[in-house]
Amino acid sequence: MSYDNLSGRTAVVTGAASGIGAAVALRLAGSGARVALLARRADRLETVVAKIRANGGEALAVVADVTDDASVQAAADAVHAAYGSVDLVVNNAGVMLPNPVDDGRIDEWQRMLDTNVTGVLRVLRAFTGDLVEAAAAGRTADLVNVSSIGAHVVFPTFAVYGATKAAVTFLSQALRAEFGPRDVRVTNVEPGLTDTELGTHIEGEELREQVAGMFDGMGALAAEDLADLVGYVASRPRHVNLRQVVVQPTRQV
Predict the structure, then answer these.
(1) How far apart are CA 70 and CA 245, in angstroms?
(2) What is the CA radius of gyration of the chain?
(3) Model pTM greater than 0.90?
(4) N or C of the chain: less Cβ packing under 10 Å?
(5) Which one, of 109, 89, 106, lies nearest residue 25 by Cα?
(6) Taking a C-beta distance cutoff of 8 angstroms, is the pair 147, 93 a contact?
(7) What's the pLDDT at 165?
């Protein structure tokens, strides 16, 4: 589905080298938005950008690491130099490293916190001024954070990952109190089982088999399903904020 009123908007999508982020970038560009794609893997970014351009869209590849302050600021500078002000930010970059808490893998915990929580805040800091400025000028302004159903549903060995996503969900709720009165919409999207690269991060044969069994039994959303949802959310009339969206395969209960 195309959302024509996204035409002319300027979007930033993080984690855009693959999965949900790449699909969101393709969907927004296909609806006429200019899209800056942020991620660490330059080759994968260029592949997605080439696909967007081949379809007649406008896109910019920006190599960025959301765990690094200077990298995010440099990315914001590059986006502003190319496109000017941004009015749609999709915080999608994330990492999932499930392991039992008693393994004590502090390095993995820190990586998830830096990416899934502080990374969201770094991107927010870089583009808050843009969103507020766009809204003040009477334009539609959106912040879309991609959380997870894991923010509410307990899965063994996913405690720290779930905690980071619960933080994103709460942060989104709190941000609405700050940004809503200034006409900036904040949407929190919580996907259930989704077919992305995150599953490849799982260590251990037993855990991989458990997760594979869930996918086999319940099916999974495609990244394109999430992209369509983000397009729908961002294309609503300016006074309509879909604040919280939980989306999962029909068989996932």
Answers:
(1) 32
(2) 17
(3) yes
(4) C
(5) 89
(6) no
(7) 98
Spell out the residues 6+ positions from residue 158 whose beta carbon is closer than 8 angstroms to its own: 96, 98, 150
Name residue, tokens 């805040």. 121
Active site residue 161: yes
From residue 66, how far is each of 16, 113, 123, 129, 172 by CA, in Å? 12, 11, 7, 18, 18
CB of 197 within 8 A of CB of 154?
no
Q: Which helix (H) or strand (E) holds 26?
A: helix 19-30
Q: What is the pLDDT of residue 154?
A: 87
Residues 6+ apart with CB under 8 A from 166: 147, 150, 151, 152
**Which tokens belong to 60?**
């910019």
Model confidence over 168-186: pLDDT tens digits?
Answer: 999 999 999 999 999 999 9
State the pLDDT at residue 4. Answer: 87
189 touches 146 (CB < 8 A): yes
**Cα distance between the two ends of the chain:** 27
Residues 6+ apart with CB under 8 A from 66: 14, 15, 38, 72, 93, 115, 119, 120, 122, 123
215 is written with which tokens? Answer: 């996918």
Burial category of 244 from C-beta neighbours within 10 Å (exposed 0-12, middle 13-18, buried 19 and up): middle
Task: Pick the catalytic residue from 3, 83, 161, 232.
Answer: 161
Which residues, 6 or more positions from 96, have their beta carbon under 8 angstroms from its beta carbon?
A: 112, 158, 161, 198, 201, 202
What tokens were used for 35?
A: 């899209």
